[in-house]
Please model this.
Amino acid sequence: MTTLGILLVLVLLLVVFGLLFRLQILTSIFSGSSAREVGVSNRVNAILFIIFLVVGGAAFAWSFIDNYDKMNPPIASVHGHATERMFWTTMIILGIVFTLTQILLFVYSYKYQHKEGRRAFFFPHNNKIEVIWTLIPAIVMAGLVFAGWKEWTRITGPAPKDAVVVEVMGKQFNWLVRYPGRDQKLGVVNYRLIDATNEFGFDLSDKNGVDDFVAPEIHVPKGHPVLLKIRSRDVLHAVYMPHFRVQMYAVPGMPTKFWFTPTKTTDEMRAQTGNPKFNYELACNQICGRGHFAMKLNIVVDEPDDYVAWFGQQKSFSEQNPDVLASFKQKSDKLAGNEAAAPEAAAVIPAAAKASL
Amino acid sequence: MAANLPTQAQVQGGAGVTEPGITHDEHAHHDEHHEQSFLEKYIFSTDHKVIAKQFLITGIFWAIIGGTLSSLFRLQLGWPESTFEWLSPFLGKWIEAGKLNPEFYLALVTMHGTIMVFFVLTAGLSGTFSNFLIPLQIGARDMASGFMNMLSYWFFFLSSVVMFSSLFIETGPAAAGWTIYPPLSALPQAIPGSGAGQTLWLVSMALFIVSQLLGGVNYITTVINLRTQGMSMSKLPLTIWAFFLTAILGLLSFPVLFSAALLLIFDRSFGTSFFLSDIYIAGQALPNTGGSPILFQHLFWFLGHPEVYIVIMPAMGMVSEILATNARKPIFGYRAMIGSLLGISLLSFIVWAHHMFVTGMNPFLGSVFMFLTLIIAVPSAVKTFNWLATLWRGNIRFTTAMLFSIGFVSLFIAGGLTGIVLGNAALDIQMHNTYFVVAHFHLVMGSSAFFGLWAGVYHWFPKMFGRMMDEKLGYVHFWLTFLGVYLVFLPMHYVGIAGFPRRYYAWTGFDTFSQFADLNKFISAAAIIAFFAQFVFIFNFFYSIFRGRRATENPWNSTTLEWTTPVVPGHGNWPGAIPAVHRWPYDYSKPGAAEDFIPQHVPYSQTQSSNLPYEKEME
Model:
């Protein structure tokens, strides 16, 4: 019944609009305005452009300022500060160009609206002006390219040798995290070995993998370079960590990487944002299927000491899954001795870096 | 084979080869003797004007579908907590317990992108106006091959049928994003849309590419060979330059998409590993090794980037033309405008990898592509400044077409500028695949190309149908749309700067993305209202075809050749001889001239009072 009512109202509205439309045509014929080449509406449109410029500009400025605080995820990495500065510098330059050109566009539209008896200024070209407004953007662009190139090279350059290594693997629809263990070497994995238990496809005949451990979330130490090694085991995913200004695709068959240095612990960020539940989050940013929008992983930035302690508590994958280990024909007696030893801080964060912390 | 068709023979004046600069009018009067059947005249027509209308109306159909899809997913994004039981009569099983199925959501965004980019803004825009304007503005009786032109439309039609049917199949249409990156698009195990839906998508796109190539070859040949006497390349209207370069871009880049699609079909159906490697999915390790998903992206964007210029350049050309006509002023810097079109065309082929900065591609390659990408801002800036200079000291008539052209410039600036952020690899790390990108390209290539399309329709409607569109309704349409576009896409930048990822069904799972629920509601509401405003246009369009005010031959007092034809030009365009061309297309408000425009076919000998010194010798 309500549906019928709504339909009826819609039909009646359309009829009213139709009648108004016919009426408008008839009046324009009777008033003779349809015969004039340029009528009153020309002036109305010119004024509307000015109103659009003024009211629209003000509304844009207001909404921008109003939303500014919500726009910037707080920064928690060294290069994040640099790119953030560059982003807003670029935005200011663009904002100036945007404002000037839009003002010119709408003011010209208003100012040079049709006037009876006036003739437009015949001004087909002027090479000097063309050269000027080719060169100026070219110079500005050159500056922006140079700044961007310098920063990009720095960010994508080789990671420091002492970086903490963490591996993230994307799968439909969650992330798996693997640490290299005390030997700081990630073991070989093979996608053909993947099953419900061995989600990474550990090939434990490689000794380097025996002390690798998996974790439900990423832990990284503050103030220390972190090298993310990124892989995918099914479709494309992308590691996106907005607070760290980090993004890199996870590509099946082609490991990728990204390194960064976190600058604030999770606790510090909780204090800064006034949100006791704050967590650094890693989101998938490449369409990957049904659960794409829910592929979340938490990242915890610890004080270096806490990180070392956390690292020490982790049990290797092989230790937790002895049957997987047994299935690889390994000399288990040789490994037993190693596993007993407690992890030392020096092995967790390489010595050179420790000094710098 | 084309010459066997009777209509074709007449259109070309019976001559197989037509020399440039030679009018071929001697057989033109033949068409009056020949009665065409309905089928020949309106369905399997070889007349470029009818084919143009076919492209346009098919494009409008697709635009309604594409817009409807976007309204559906904007509902989900604006009100993620709501239930949409009321949509189940339309969407059937895709509404599960009142919620939109997340896989269907991805299918919606995929099909919205595919439809808008290819079917509306490539076929509907360039297909319509390249067909309609090239012969009319260069002074030709028809395209070089009317038969191929007809095939071009019917391949497009076939491609449309296949794509449309994919919307209704059980596993749903393609859902891997309009960029169909494998492995997602290659593996039905990964998402059901990658089954039959993706197959149909690929088949449809292959047919679409055939259509584009048939059209493109024709446009290029026609512009090179069939210009009327005196119509040198340096007297071509900017529209023709834009269509010409667009066709070249399409001809060089679409085959690469074809190859990508073909290799993907091989991977999907014949067990090859071009794009697949080391995959464990649905409890199974696949045998494929050695392929590279990144290779697909290189192939895709080698088309994909020129494609955005294929979409925008025809709009640029038409806007240049309309701005000059309605400002009653020559386009400022005609040669600079051609130069910048050439620059954009060239550069558009060597910037594709800026879509791939964070894919794991070698960072050095990223640096190179950043450099090339930011160069392309220069010709774009030159164009913008020239448009502004064209308005300066003009005598502007705000026809609906003019409003949309000014709107085009405004949106092109707004959307183009943020490209400078995204082209900077260091900044793209954060912005890649966020709503900042979505806002950027919807303004610069989506909305502004649409504005170019509308401007073109309002401007050339009198020549298409012999009647005028209603101006008042046009104003309502413009202002609602202009406002709507800004209300949707400006706030979307805020969402993007905050890092909201695109193609998310909901952001509610993340604390990081929890702050803009209200703004997203606002964007959704504005988008849906702006979508409904388009029905004003659709009503105006179809109403005016039958009931609009009758047009005159040259309602806008324009200079180009199409306005020298009868109100409704017949097959062959000019009843008598094709006019020869004597001057450039922008002699508006020339000092000393009797009227404020001098059409291209008026010789200098008739305009002695207004001739410039160097034109005196041409009298």
Observations:
- Chain B touches chain A through 117 residues (CB under 8 Å).
